[in-house]
Predict the 3D structure of the following.
Amino acid sequence: MKKKSETVLSKDTTIGQALKQNPNLEEVFLGFGMHCVACPVSQMETIEEAAAVHGVDADFLLKKLNEYKN
């Protein structure tokens, strides 16, 4: 069960927002070959947009991001 303070990420969440919520999610993005975590565009690019650019299934990526535990 998720803690009350945890926010579920969505396709509209930017990579920057996701990393601000949990910096350790960088591991998940890198595991998908998405090295955009250090890119300035990540502050504006949504998870769905980044997934499309990198040929990653956005739903599967979101599942893994939301399941990730520190």
